[in-house]
Write a structure and sequence with these properties.
Elements: H1 19-22, H2 31-40, E1 48-49, H3 64-68, E2 87-88, E3 91-92, E4 94-101, H4 108-116, E5 134-140, E6 143-149, H5 160-172, E7 178-184, H6 190-198, E8 205-210, H7 221-231, E9 236-239, H8 245-256, H9 276-292, E10 301-310, E11 319-328, H10 331-338, H11 343-360, E12 363-372, H12 380-385
Parallel strand pairs: 4-6, 4-7, 7-8, 8-9, 11-12
Antiparallel strand pairs: 1-9, 2-3, 5-6, 10-11
């Protein structure tokens, strides 16, 4: 059973008619005007329309051989069939898919969680935390937004795990209505260029300049913005912080107009298409990475061996009995996870249980083991057996 909205959550439609309130774009200016506007702005209150008809991107490097091995799975749109829009308070329904893409560790999962209004994708300072394509839904007024969070595109290592992750990225951008390309405001690295080169030029792309609150002098962003305009014909530029509620509200208003008028694909209160079993494995992995820091390689993974649901005994809450296995590649990694006298794995289990009880509104009992599977990330068959595409 997938998580749903709390009963009290609102569905007020963003007011897309007001530029100041919903971030609607002003008429497309020439490049110098755009740069000056951002340099002089006191806050990121509006989206800036892209106006450069430049069909070029930065050279992404020499990984063409590796790219040739990756085949895009473009069949990610729900098989629900196009249905005519229904009027909601006199407004025709809209529904569409939005892919959130970017290099590892730029805040994609934080942005997804903020847009959905609940945590469905794990976050960590460790790069490459997201491993799977996570779909989150948010219905506001007459519009249903279907967001797809993706792993960060990997260019440094060509093992089986990373090939699987990169295939997931390419699949996510193959059949969407809008792409949110997330970068850190003021920064553009070769890894960013690699992702940008993959984007379908037939799909509108918003440049999400995340962590804009870290740019203390707006004049510093002006030269960067000008170069970004020259790299890709972005539909709009959205300076923002994924942790700022007003910026998230503004982003909804900006994205809404790019979605087609058609019936919704999901029930109004659905938040994700992922199962609770999947969310348990992701929560364990998040706590694992947060509590081991940079000690543990990102190739560690989590398998859910048991997920049993029972009626609550002394309360109305259901009871979940879970058994999870943390898979690492070396005996030394196993020792890191267990910790001195088992203290670290106990803490991983405790923090996982507390978060799951809040997320799933249930009493949770969880057992954990740690097993060594040497070289699993280089083994195509084992990568697939662990649930990767």
């Amino acid at each position: 059973m997938s998580p749903r909205k709390p009963a009290s959550s609102g569905t007020a439609k963003p007011n897309a008619s007001s530029a100041s309130e919903a971030g609607a774009a002003v008429p497309a200016p020439v490049i110098p005007d755009v740069v000056e506007a951002v340099a002089n702005a006191d806050s990121a209150e509006t989206a800036i329309p892209g106006n450069v008809d430049v069909d070029s991107t930065v050279d992404a490097g020499s990984d063409s051989d590796a790219d040739a091995e990756i085949e895009a799975d473009t069949n990610i749109r729900p098989m629900r069939g196009a249905s005519p829009p229904v009027l909601v308070d006199g407004v025709a329904q809209r529904c569409g898919m939005l892919a959130i893409v970017g290099k590892p560790n730029v805040g994609k999962s934080t942005l997804l969680n903020a847009l959905v209004g609940q945590k469905i994708s794990i976050t960590s300072r460790k790069a490459q935390t997201t491993r799977h394509r996570i779909t989150g839904m948010r219905t506001r007024g007459a519009t249903q937004f279907v967001f797809v969070d993706t792993p960060g595109f990997q260019t440094l290592h060509g093992n089986a795990l990373n090939r699987s992750l990169n295939k997931t990225v390419l699949g996510a951008i193959g059949d969407v209505d809008l792409i949110l390309f997330v970068v850190e405001a003021g920064s553009f690295t070769p890894a960013d260029a690699k992702v940008l080169a993959l984007l379908n030029k037939g799909v509108p792309v918003l440049l999400i300049a995340n962590k804009f609150d870290n740019v203390h002098r707006r004049a510093e962003i002006a030269p960067w913005l000008k170069t970004m305009q020259e790299r890709h014909p972005f539909a709009e530029f959205v300076p923002m912080s994924a942790k700022n509620a007003k910026d998230i509200e503004r982003l909804f208003g900006i994205c809404e107009k790019y979605l087609p008028e058609q019936g919704w694909w999901y029930a109004e209160d659905e938040l994700t298409d992922r199962s609770e079993r999947f969310l348990v494995s992701e929560t364990v992995r998040e706590k694992l990475f947060r509590l081991t820091g940079d000690e543990l390689p990102y190739t560690s993974t989590v398998i859910i061996d048991k997920f049993d649901e029972e009626p609550g005994r002394s309360s109305k809450k259901r009871m979940l009995k879970i058994a999870a296995t943390i898979v690492v590649e070396r005996d030394s990694h196993k020792a890191m996870v267990i910790g001195d006298k088992g203290e670290r794995i106990k803490r991983i289990g405790m923090e996982t249980r507390v978060e799951l009880e809040k997320l799933m509104d249930a009493k949770v009992f969880i057992e954990m083991w740690v097993k060594v599977r040497s070289g699993w990330a280089d083994d195509e068959a084992r990568v697939r057996s662990f649930g990767y595409e």
